[in-house]
């Protein structure tokens, strides 16, 4: 019973991330921009690191007032610039694929962040938290902020779901007929970035990326409409989160690697079951003829 109480807040945090990330994950897979999540996360982390360094350099006293707000403001600024750049590059005829540019942005942003954090006190701790997060130690304040952002972004995407779905379905069609499609592309990246900033602060880049891609990959493999895909992804993500948190507590190991491993196992089992069930169908049809 004590175990359930201890993982209650972390599980709620995972639940919020899963709810929004599975939705964005389906979009990302359909658009074939798989690494957009870790790219935006790394760019947000770079903004936060730059903001932290600047705040410490101009701060007269050593109080922590504004220590969280200043880096957060820089994260949002960097996310806005990245969202605009990705939107612009998608609609420009360039020889380098957008996915390659996203990968380059991730590599450069991560490298610069590590360099900046390495010069500060406790840099190794910052880098570790940036990668794997501290989901087990989520506070009520962090959970409230995450819930607020997820709610605002979720409601926005529910209201304009047809716009975003149409954009995703026709993402590789350069003759897009949707009005102001560049604006809607920017709003997609920016709203996604808002979620990433909050989620990465809690769960880390690797865990958030796993929540984005692995459950959504299973839902895309199993096909079906958007509602079916969302339900499949949510069930997979919630199951892995609860079991992962419980196992990490019982085994006294970090929660993020356990959750990611379980997500990978669920994806593998789901794919194998899908292949087995599909291989049986032709045999049945042949025997009937």
CATH C-level class is: Mainly Alpha
Total helical segments? 12
Task: Report the end-to-end length measured between terminal Cα atoms.
Answer: 57 Å
Tell me the structural class.
mainly alpha
Quick check: average pLDDT? 83
Q: What does this molecule look like?
A:
This protein has 289 residues and is mainly α. The chain has a single domain, classed as ABC transporter involved in vitamin B12 uptake, BtuC, CATH 1.10.3470.10. Helices cover 81% and strands 0% of the residues. The protein contains 12 helices and no strands. It starts with a helix and ends with a helix.
Summarize this structure briefly.
With 289 residues, the chain is mostly helical. The protein has twelve helices and no strands. Helix content is 81%, strand content 0%.
